[in-house]
Structure formats: C-alpha cells, structure tokens
Design goal:
alpha/beta; 536 residues; 40% helix; single chain; three-stranded antiparallel beta sheet; eight-stranded parallel β-barrel
C-alpha cells in the first residue's frame, strides 16, 4: 500500500515570536531554522521580511538546506499595484524559495480590518500569488479566520480559496485564527472545502485556544488536508499553536496515521525529538514543560506503586508508545506512594544494582517516605533522591565538609544615590582536612551562597566550573510565620545535563543551601572516576 505524503510547515519563527516573553535574536532564529531543517520539517517559515532589521537581515540568504525556506507577509494592499506596495516588494526581494501570503477570508474582517471591498480583497490574493509565481517562488495562501468566515459567509470564504488556487497557489491553508473551532466542525468544513480545492493542495493552521489545536489538525488530515502547520512545543500567541512536537510522533507512531501517511521526519530524527524540544526551550531560556506529551520529563513517569510494579514487568501496561522512540526515557518515581518496585527501578536507573531482598531497602524506603512527609518532593528532584540512596548504600565520597555559613543582606544607597540591596555570604568548608573560608557577594542571598560555596573547593573546583543554577522555585508548605519552606533548584552543566535538587527547612536560606549543596555534590558524583577516587 502506497502511503500519502503529509507536509509539515513550521511557523515557530513567526507565530512563536508573537508569544509573550519570546523575542528571537538573529542568531537564535538561525539556530532554530537549522534545528528544524535537521529534524526533517518540509517548510520553515522565517517571519516577515521588512518587519524589522533582524528579519530583513535574516532573509538576506537562505537559512535551510533541505527545508523550503519561506517568507511570510500580507497580500497586496487595496488601491496599490504590486510594484507600489512596500510589503510586497520586501517579500519579492527576500532570498526565499517560497512565499506564504496571508489574506482575510472572512468578509467581516475585509470590511472592518482592511476597509476594502470583497472584490478588492480577491484581487489582492490573485495578483499577489501571480507575482510570487512570476518571481519563481512557490506560492501559498494562509486564509486567515477561514473557519469563522466560512460559518458567516460560506461562498466568500470558498471564493478566497478558489481565487488562490486559480492563480497558481501550491497550498491554500485554512486557518482557525481565533482557535475556537472544534474538531467535528473542522472535519465538516474541510470536507466541504475539498469540493472546491483538492485536499492535496490544502493545509491546516490551528490555534490552541480550546486546547484542541492538535486534535483539529488531525481532524483536518482525516478530512483531506495534506499540509499541517505548527510550532515547536506549541508556542504562539495567546494559548499557542498546534505543537509539532506532539503531532510528529502521533503521525509516525500511531497506526491510524503511520499506516496511511508518510512525513519527512525519519525514525532516526524522531529519536532526537526530545532533545530538539529541550534545546528549543534552552534557546528561549525557559524551563521545559515536564508534562508535555511525548517529550516531557513526566510523559513516561509513573508514581503509583501498583502501576510501577506492572511497568517493571511489562512497560506496555502503562505506556502508549516506547519512550526511546522519541528520545525520552521511562521514569518510575519514588515518593510517599512508592513501593519496592518503584525504588528498585530508580536504583537501577542510577546504576545501583541492589538485590530485592537487601535489608537496606526497607530502611531507605522508610527514610524516603518520612522525608516526603516532612516536605521533600523526590519525584521532582531525582538528583537529591539519587544522593540519598547512594549515601544510605555507601556510594557517595566525602568530597568536602561544610562547617557553617552566614548570609548578610544590606539595603543601602550606593555612591550615586541609588537604593540597592547587597547580599554577602560566608561559607566555611573543609577539603582534604584543610579549612577554607570563602566570601562572595551576589544579587540575592541564594546567589551569594552559590558563589561562595563554589569559590574555593581546591582540586574539586575544576569539576564544577560549568555548573550553573538555572531555576529556583520556593513553595510554602504550611501557613504562618513559622511555615516550612521547600526549595527546588534546577542546575545544568556545559554538556547540557540538567538535574533537580530539593531542600526543606523552616528557614528559606537553609532550605536553599541544602538544595545548592546537593547540586554541587551531584555534579561531583557524576564527574570522572579519578575525581571520586581523589576525593575518597
């Protein structure tokens, strides 16, 4: 059976740019484009040429080798010729292989937003597609607000799509711009559209305002479209766009799709998807969504003891696909709900082979449950869990000993009269029997403690040079001024490894220092065997 080809069109560099808090630099746009190209995306849309200096420079040369590098912009304005429209000229001068135009397909928007007649809008579609074709580019049209427009005036929405088709557009993309259409509506409308435009020339562009962007995209495929637009990790304005990091594995691993369709992503590239997702979040300097489908750290994590016991025996009992197929991994969480199966599975992942009958397991499990009752959350801090297990099982070298620390916070006016707050930390440690005292200032008490702790650990310092604290979360576990505080710290190193550590105390600084200390020790445990031997 010959499979039909589905084409993936990425709009991360345009729709993603509209996400609050995201503003790509030129270098970041180039890095994302290269990442998408390697993954096997068919079209990479780079944004609006001429919208700003960075986008203009981005289109000075093509940024992809395999993917069709695509420029995006509006169709010709009403009352202007193609030659006299600056936006059109910026698109035609961009070094892109394709141009994706956006046009209103809801007559209400034509009248209110454009202040044009319906025929002037159709003329803009017709002449813009023709100009792109004449310049040797692949031309396509995003029919903005198509589904709302279709429900308001079916004939005009279809006329917009048919005009683009007749002018030579390769793709006519149906956009659920407001994100309010539901899957059954998508299916019904797309099937109606295929009576005018063939499905192999139709695309879908879904927003996620009802949480249905992926479902709407799949419904459109079932109804006939053969191009899917989306973004990495579902970034986009408001609630985001259809997530390609969810769509790609669904299309490749679910029989309902992979038995009928083929996409440009190979199985080898699919196995890098989790890394791609997290690398993209790294570019954005944000914490990955742990519960993201397929690629999230919790996507294949199991907490309940009865579930974990079944997974250890047969992973398929609670997994809909194999995590390694998308570059993720199975995690059996150890918590206050844990049983022996959870614990053994996690110990094996840490590289600790322990006999199921080892009497130390009961003590370790009791310790974990007691500490979780006190406020620790090891399901979110597996580095601290590994250290706890290794200490009870006798596998953590005595790298150094902290004898004490002190933090001072001073609020004062500086030399130029600005009110500033300065934190100073003093940490006393013993390394190889030698006492050392380090003093450092920081942006806050935790930053000052982090810098002071790592300032002088003797020969150990070189092993933690690339250690960086990237996220810091505080949670108050009970009310009142004597509340217990839990601090969760995320760290990373120069090789891109990330780990989470936890500290709990009535004192927020003490809880923070406990988590910081675990982060440093965990990094040392994961360094070379020679470093461990030297520390022992």
């Amino acid at each position: 059976m010959t499979k039909e080809r589905l084409y993936l069109f990425d709009t991360t560099l345009r729709d993603g740019q509209q996400t609050p808090g995201i503003d790509f630099s030129l270098e970041e746009k180039a890095a994302v484009a290269a990442m998408l190209d390697r993954l096997g995306i068919d079209y990479v849309e780079g944004g609006y040429p001429g919208a700003n200096p960075a986008d203009t420079e981005f289109f000075q040369r093509r940024r992809t080798h395999r993917a069709v590098f695509t420029a995006f912009g509006m169709t010709k304005r009403a009352g202007r010729s193609v030659d006299n429209d600056p936006g059109m000229q910026a698109l035609l001068q961009a070094d892109s292989a394709a141009i994706c135009f956006v046009a209103k397909s809801w007559d209400y928007h034509v009248r209110v937003a454009l202040g044009a007649t319906n025929e002037e809008n159709l003329q803009g579609i017709r002449e813009s597609i023709a100009a792109a074709k004449a310049s040797g580019r692949e031309a396509m049209l995003d029919c903005e607000h198509f589904f709302d427009g279709f429900k308001a005036n079916r004939d005009y929405a279809l006329a917009c799509a048919k005009t683009a088709l007749d002018a030579g557009a390769r793709w006519i993309v149906l956009c659920d711009t407001n994100g309010g259409t539901l899957p059954d509506e998508i299916s019904e409308i797309v099937r109606d559209v295929t009576s005018v435009v063939p499905g192999d020339k139709l695309g879908i562009h879904a927003h996620n305002d009802t949480g249905n962007a992926v479902a709407n995209s799949l419904a459109a495929v079932d109804a006939g479209v053969r191009q899917i637009q989306g973004t990495l990790n579902g970034v986009g304005e408001r609630c985001g766009n259809a997530s390609l990091t969810t769509l790609i594995p669904t299309l490749m691993l679910k029989p309902a799709y992979h038995e009928r369709f083929q996409i440009g992503v190979t199985r080898e590239a699919l196995a890098t998807l989790t890394d791609v997702s997290r690398a993209f979040d790294e570019i954005l300097n944000r914490t990955p969504d742990r519960q993201a489908p397929y690629v999230g750290a919790s996507a294949f994590a199991t907490k309940a003891g009865i579930h974990a016991s079944a997974i250890v025996k047969e992973p398929e009992t609670y997994e809909h696909v194999k995590p390694e197929e998308i570059g993720n991994r199975r995690r059996v969480l150890v918590s206050d709900q844990a049983g022996r199966s959870n614990l053994l599975a996690e110990l094996a992942r840490f590289g600790l082979e322990v006999d199921r009958k080892d009497p130390r397991l009961d003590g370790l499990l009791a310790d974990i449950k007691a500490r979780e009752a006190a406020g620790y959350a090891y399901e979110a801090a597996d580095a601290s869990l590994e250290l706890l297990a290794r200490r009870r099982l006798g596998h953590v070298p005595a790298f150094f000993e902290v004898e004490g620390f002190r933090v001072d916070v001073e609020r004062r006016y500086n030399a130029v009269g600005d009110l500033v707050t300065v934190s100073e930390a003093v940490v006393k440690v013993k390394v190889n029997g030698e006492r050392r005292m380090s003093v450092e200032e920081g942006n806050g008490p935790v930053n000052a403690l982090d810098r002071a702790l790592r300032k002088d650990l003797g020969d150990l310092s070189s092993a933690i040079e690339d250690l960086e604290l990237v996220d810091f979360k505080v949670r108050i576990l009970n009310g009142g001024t004597e509340a217990v505080t839990r601090v969760l710290i995320e760290s990373r190193d120069g090789e891109g490894n990330r780990w989470f550590t936890v500290g709990v105390s009535p004192n927020i600084i003490d809880a923070s220092f406990e988590a910081l200390l675990d982060a440093v020790v965990f990094k040392l445990v994961k360094t070379t065997p020679e470093m461990q031997a030297a520390a022992e």
